[in-house]
Structures are given as C-alpha cells and as structure tokens.
Design brief:
Helix content of chain B: under 10%
CATH topology of the largest domain in chain B: Glycoprotein, Type 4 Pilin
CATH architecture of the largest domain in chain B: 2-Layer Sandwich
Radius of gyration of chain A: 28 Å
Shape of chain B: elongated
Number of strands of chain A: 22
Low-confidence stretches of chain A: none
Largest sheet of chain A: 8 strands, antiparallel
Shape of chain A: globular
CATH topology of the largest domain in chain A: D-amino Acid Aminotransferase, Chain A, domain 1
Strand order of the largest sheet of chain B: 4-3-2-1-9-8-7-6-5
Helix content of chain A: 25-40%
Number of helices of chain B: 1
Number of helices of chain A: 17
Mean pLDDT of chain A: 92
Oligomer: heterodimer
Strand order of the largest sheet of chain A: 13-12-9-10-11-14-21-19
C-alpha cells in the first residue's frame, strides 16, 4: 500500500479521500490555491503545498505544479477526486510517466469514454444498448421517414453539430416529419452553420439510473448496484437515491452485467460509473464517468463498501478479493447536494461568508462538506458546498430521516439548494417513486405559508435588537449622551434667556 | 415601531411596542404571544409562540433579513413607516423604471436589448455569468431601456448598476 498520496483537488471530495487514507495509515498531501489557504482540506492533510494563483487554471488545473508538488513531497500516487483533472487522459499519462500511480482508470479508457461518438461506437460493438438511432446524418425527409420506421417513434431530430437543445425537434408521427425536418435543418444551419441532422429515439419521460463499477488490475470486476439520479435541473443533479424504485431485481442484474461489459470493453481499472437512461423497462447507455462521483456515498451506505478504500487498494495493485455474490443491498440511502444558489430565484448563484453553520446529527446521518464557519463562498469554484446523506431501513424511512436532517441544518450567509430538496422530498410524486428527469423543473418552489407570521415577527425583532445594540455600543452611547447633555444645557440657557423657569 | 415585512407572497405589518419593559408584538394587527431569544450574535435564535418552540437562524442587516426555519429560508425586506413613505414616493416618481443592479458578482456576457428599445415585463435584458453559469437578467416591469452602464465583457460586483429602465408614461 502507498505510504503517501497527493490529492489534486479541494473541498469536500479532498476531505473524503483524506479521511479514508488516514484510516488506512496513508499520509496525505493537499494542494491549494491562494483563496483556499484556510480550507479544511489544507488543515486536515498531513502536508499542504501552495500552488498559488486564484483561478482553477493557475492552481488545481496546473499539471506541472501538481506533479512538482508530488515529487517534492515524495507522494507515490495522485488521487484526482472529481472535476478538475480527474477525466484528463493526458494528465493521467503524465502521472504514470512520472513514475507515480494514478488513482483512476487507464488514459485509454478515459479517452474513449470522453468522446460521445467514439464511446457510442465502442458500446455498440460491445453489445451495450445505446439509444436507438443512426451514427450517420440523414440526407432528406424521405430517408428520414424510412429510417424512423426502424428506430421507432417518437423520434428526436438533432443537429449533427448541435448542443444545448438547439435544433432538436420531436416527431411523434410520420406525417409530422416533413415540417419538423425543415425547421430543424434551418435552425441547425443558422445556429451552427451546419444543417446536417441525425435521428434518435426520443425518450419522453426517462429516468437517470447509473451503475457503480469497480475493476482491479487482475481482470476482476464487480458492480455495487445502481443509483437513481433523476432529480436534476439542466443536467445538474440535486437529489440521488439508491436503490432505484423503478427497476426490479432482474433489470438490476441485467444493468449491472451490461455496465461491467462496458467497462471491460475499454480495459477499465478502478472506480467508474456507467450512466443509463431508463424508460418503460428499456435502458440505454448514456455515458461512462471515469472517476469517483459526487453521489458515491449512497452506494457506500447501502453496500457497506468504502469506495475510496477500494480505489486505493486497486491502484496499489491489490486484487478486489471478493465477487459479485458477496455484495448485497441493505436498506435505502438518499443524498442531497448543498449548492450555494437560490432555488426560489431561478437558482441564481449565491455568495457570502458562512458566519453561521448548524450541522444536523443523529443516527445514520452523514455530512460530507468542506464548509467551516468564516468560509468565503465566492465565484471562483463550483457552487457545491457539500452533501447530506442519510440511510434508512427502507425508502420511506430514509425520506423521513432526510427531511428531519434538512430541517435541523442551517447554512447562514448564503442561500442554498436545501429548500428545493426539501420540497422534492415532501412531494407526493417523489414519495410515490414515480418521477422522471423533468420532475424538478416542473416544481414551483415557495416556502410554506403557515410560518409567515412567525418569520415576519422574527425579522422585525432582529431589526429592533440590531438597532438597540447599535445604540448601546460604547462609543455611540457616549456620543449620544454628550449630545443629550448639550441639548439640555442649551435649552436651559434658552429658557433662562426667555425669562422662563430654568 | 411599525415595520412592513415584504416576502414572496405578500407583505406583513409587524408592530413592536415597549410597555413596562415588555415588548408587545402585533402581526397584521393581531397581538401575538411571541418570545424571541438570541442564543449567540451569529444568528442562532430560539423563538416561542403559543407554547411552540422554533429554532431559527436569522441573518442580515436593517432592511434585508433572511430567516431559516425548518429547512426553508424566507428572504424578507423590511421598511419602517418613514422608509416606506420615502420608497413609495420614489417609485411613483420613477413610474416603475429605475436602475437594475447586479445581484451577484459576475461578468456581463452580452446585452439582449439595445438602448431605446421597449421591453416587456420579464423580458431578458442581458446575460450575467457567475460561477460558470449563465443567468438571464429580466426586466422587472415594462419600460424603455434608457441606459447601459457597463460594457459587455466587463466584470461587475454585486450592487453595480447594469442598466437603467425608464418606466412607460402612464398618462
């Protein structure tokens, strides 16, 4: 096992890795930018190396600086966390070339899975189901109608050069094809300068279900079942749960096997996540995330496996040492992301100083966060401040526990996504388990009305006490007294001059 | 002292009267059995109302106060009677227009409307990028874009004036 590792990340994920490494007796080297010099990952590591700079490019993305820090401290391996350099194949290669271990998959696997077209080709070849569609653009409406028969309606017409939802048209019947094709082509041409279109099956109400996999370097692989991440907005996940309430035991086993197949097809080693879209019993490969994911703790909660420990063991060359048969789902887990944003105000980013923090506690409540009192939440980095995770004997208990934990928690100084998560958890539709990826965006968010009078009274009291404290501040008080004396004297003088009683 | 407390969904009138060292609280004219105790000066507060206990977090200054209760955060704006009168007069004088300020620091990506153009309520005026996210800033009411104060591409701090809207003539 490694004696010392460097963690090329910040925030809660850096802490997450440090915690397991410490439990394993491994020393940790943190790296940090100028803005992060007080951060928790710096304080909790054994050593910390200043990278300088404030932007990610000057710090956590600067490959040369990170490699130099590893060399200088004698670190034997680099854990990239998620984001930053975690899915950078060149960096993975540079780490290996420097004689260090890369706690992640081989560069080749990162490259293939990082490319939408290449990964789709590789998956088709490996027999992994992808969303039915054509790899090549269609020429005209007649061909589109012919091809659509083979794919199955509804059909999404997408711009070949597209992105961001532009140029997408949904066609539900063949006779809608002509006009949709024309407008999509025009929009693609004006938006991207490229009118080529391709066809894909359109999933009306998909659910996002992903499988956690782990491979060692000796040809062994297991999956730790699924996570359901359909509560999302603009592809940003907010609430995740495991297991999913949409799939049965047979589907679970099939998806797990397919995920392992996907990993094997690219020679995968380490932790990874195979994301699927699921709809009405069918599932299709979406992409593979070649790193540890934000929502990995819910998998840890239901399997009892420390995924970071497994990552470190595998990267050090150890065998997994167990098979699929020894893994079981126990209970239910939910995670909620704490983002610095204001969900009621269109999820606008929120900045400020965390002057007041109240963390939840109690049984089966876990808080993974880099937050501390006095922390400045700025715009330089990702708005995710942390994650709240709970475990329950079953789904209903996990939901109640998460609601209770959110109600205990307070992050003072910024607005957070917690109220949005709370609204989801209390919603009948979420509780029924029957929801899809459009659910969060369809919600109207507002605080409950029953406490309006209480919070209004509290706000007024706050202002009243604030004003009183200011008046009582020593200097202000002395000045007020001095002015008051002056007024009394001058009015006495005036009254005396007027001939009245002094 | 009377305060007007504005939050999403409406405004409440809160009256605080000190009588014989006791503070009497009235909300929307109704006396309220309300006790408010600051635990620390960082925002932890315990309040009681009719025998029920509430763990609150209260933060902010004189006019903007946020209260968090049971997982929900209520953002409120407070005015006393004098401030309310002044603000009402100011709003009337502007005819619904006025400056639009950045609510957060960021970069102005682009303007979607030109100076002199008439805009409808809710119409996006510009895109402000913050935390790698692009946010549309919309017109709070109908009007004419009278001025643009910062160039596209410029960095702004929270509170900086972005554009000025002139209210539509109502006569």
């Amino acid at each position: 096992m490694f004696r010392r590792i460097l963690i090329a990340n910040r925030g809660e994920i850096a802490l997450r890795v440090i915690r397991t490494a410490r439990e394993m007796g491994i020393e940790c080297v943190a790296v940090y930018s100028d803005v992060d010099n007080e951060a928790l990952h710096v304080r909790m590591a054994h050593q910390a190396v200043a990278l300088g700079g404030t932007t990610p490019a000057e710090s956590y993305l600067d490959q040369a600086k990170i490699l130099a820090a590893a060399k200088a401290t004698g670190a034997e391996a680099i854990h990239p966390g998620y984001g930053f350099l975690s899915e950078n194949a060149k960096f993975a290669q540079a780490v290996t070339d420097a004689g260090l271990a890369w706690i992640g998959p081989p560069p080749g696997a990162i490259t293939v899975m990082g490319d939408k077209i290449e990964s789709r080709r590789a998956m088709n070849k490996a027999g992994v189901p992808t969303v039915p569609g054509l790899e090549d653009p269609v020429d005209d409406v007649e061909q589109a109608i012919r091809d659509a028969e083979g794919i199955g309606y509804p059909i999404a017409i997408k711009a070949a050069a597209g992105g961001g939802g532009k140029g997408i048209r949904v066609v539900r019947k063949p006779d809608e094809m002509a006009s949709a094709f024309r407008t999509a082509s025009g929009e693609a041409l004006s938006s991207f300068g490229d009118g080529r279109l391709y066809l894909e099956r359109y999933l009306d109400h998909p659910r996002h279900i992903e499988i956690q996999v782990m491979f060692d370097g000796h040809g062994n692989g297991v999956h730790y079942f699924e996570r359901e991440c359909s509560i999302q907005r603009r592809h940003q996940k907010l609430v995740e749960e495991a297991p999913s309430s949409a799939i049965d035991e047979a589907t679970r086993a099939a998806m797990g096997e397919v995920a392992l197949q996907a990993g094997r097809a690219v020679g995968y080693v380490g932790a990874g996540t195979v994301e699927f879209l699921w709809e009405d019993g069918e599932f299709f490969f979406l992409e593979m995330n070649t790193r540890l994911q934000v929502e990995h703790p819910i998998t840890e909660m239901i399997t009892g496996v420390d995924l970071v420990r497994e990552q470190l063991r595998v990267a050090a060359g150890e065998e997994l040492g167990y098979g699929q048969d020894s893994l079981h789902i126990h209970g239910h887990s939910i995670e909620v992301r704490i983002n610095a944003e204001d969900p009621i105000n269109g999820y606008l980013p929120s900045v400020g100083t965390l002057h007041n923090l109240r963390a939840p506690g109690g049984p089966w409540v876990r808080l993974d966060t880099g937050m501390y009192r006095g922390m400045e939440v700025g715009l330089a980095y990702d708005p995710m401040l942390g994650k709240l995770i709970v475990w329950g004997r079953d789904r209903a208990q996990a939901i109640e526990r998460m609601i209770r934990a959110i109600q205990e928690m307070n992050v003072g100084g910024v607005m957070t996504s917690l109220p949005a998560a709370l609204t989801v958890l209390e919603h009948e539709r979420f509780r029924s388990g029957n929801y899809d990826t459009h659910f969060l965006e369809s919600l109207t968010l507002a605080p409950p009305t029953e406490y309006r009078q209480i919070v209004a009274a509290a706000a007024a009291m706050h202002r009243h006490l604030l004003a009183r404290r200011r008046a009582l501040e020593p200097q202000a008080g002395a000045r007020a007294a001095w002015l008051e004396r002056g007024r009394r004297v001058s009015s006495a003088v005036r009254r005396a001059a007027d001939g009245g009683p002094a | 002292m009377k305060y007007f407390v504005e939050m999403v969904g409406g405004t409440h009138e809160v009256e605080l009267v000190e009588r014989l060292g006791e503070l009497i609280v009235k909300v929307d004219g109704e006396p309220m059995n309300f006790d408010y105790h600051e635990i620390d000066l960082l925002g932890q507060v315990v309040a009681t109302h009719d025998g029920q206990s509430y763990a609150l977090s209260v933060e902010g200054g004189k006019s903007k106060v946020r209260v968090t209760l049971a997982g929900h955060t209520y953002a409120m704006e407070l005015e006393d009677e004098r401030e309310r009168a002044a603000h009402l007069a100011e709003r009337a004088a502007r005819g619904g227009g006025g400056p639009i300020k950045a609510v957060m620091p960021g970069i102005v990506v682009e303007y979607l409307v030109e100076v002199g153009a008439e805009v409808a309520e809710g119409q996006p005026l510009l895109i402000l990028e913050a935390m790698k996210m692009q946010n549309e800033i919309s017109a709070p009411g109908p009007g004419i874009l009278a001025a643009i104060h910062v160039e596209a591409g410029a960095t702004v701090a929270a509170g900086d004036k972005l554009v000025t809207l002139k209210g539509l003539e109502t006569e």
